[in-house]
Design a protein that fits this description.
The protein is of the alpha/beta class. The protein has 2 domains: 134 residues, Roll (2,3-Dihydroxybiphenyl 1,2-Dioxygenase, domain 1), CATH 3.10.180.10; 60 residues, no CATH class. The chain has 5 helices and 12 strands. A 4-stranded mixed beta sheet has the order 1-4-3-2, with helices on one face. The protein has a 4-stranded mixed beta sheet with strand order 5-8-7-6, covered by helices on one side.
């Protein structure tokens, strides 16, 4: 089985404002607005606008009135921390950066290398009008995650310890970017509280565990 996302729905404070932004942003990624649709369920105070693509669908949903004035905080339980969209070349990252600036997104970090993630990780970060953080990234995922599940026969991933010689970089990495104490690295669960190695020098590239 291959893990595949079918759809992502995010709740926004102002549906019309968000719609204007995503009408301009999502076509940059290959979405066709002729596959956009809107649905309402009045009895549940529910409205959604969905943008469909054969790979996955992206939807924006109105809030319940009681939550309309809440401030977005990506570290709040249940919130989206950020959403990353991948492209195939660094030139595409740069091109999309210029286009995203044109549509009025708030740039958080311009295109740059992030060797603390992976040595070939090239990305920029920005926010939509709702304050939700988005990312455009280019990296060779197959280099770090080749093929399927390479866990041991027991089915339990191996806990990996790293030497105590490079603590500072990983500590900074964790403080800024990770909210889980464990991550998956090359098919293994790494206990980040035991890490004493630089993610950059080790070539680590992983993802948060639930």
């Amino acid at each position: 089985m291959q893990p595949t996302i079918d759809h992502i729905h995010i709740t926004v404070s102002d549906l019309e404002r968000a719609e204007r932004f995503y009408d301009r942003f999502l076509p940059l990624l290959g979405f066709d607005l002729k596959h956009k649709e809107a649905t309402q369920v009045p009895e549940h105070e529910y409205r959604i606008i969905e943008y469909h693509h054969r790979n996955f669908s992206f939807g924006i949903v109105n809030p319940r009135p009681v939550f309309r004035d809440e401030i977005v905080n990506r570290r709040k339980p249940g919130a989206i921390h950020h959403i990353a969209f991948t492209v195939s070349t660094r030139a595409e990252v740069d091109r999309l950066y210029e286009r995203v600036r044109e549509i009025g997104a708030v740039i958080v970090h311009p295109p740059q290398m992030y060797p603390e993630y992976c040595e070939d990780y090239y990305a920029f970060f920005f926010k939509d009008p709702e304050g939700i953080e988005l990312e455009i990234v280019c990296l060779d995922r197959s280099r770090y995650f080749p093929g399927g599940d390479d866990r041991g026969k027991s089915g339990s991933p191996e806990i990996r310890r790293v030497s105590a010689s490079e603590r500072q970089v990983v500590d900074e990495f964790l403080r800024e970017h990770w909210f889980s104490t464990k991550m998956v690295v090359r098919g293994r669960v790494v206990d980040m509280t035991l890490l004493d190695g630089s993610a950059a020098s080790l070539g680590l590239c992983g993802q948060n565990l639930p």
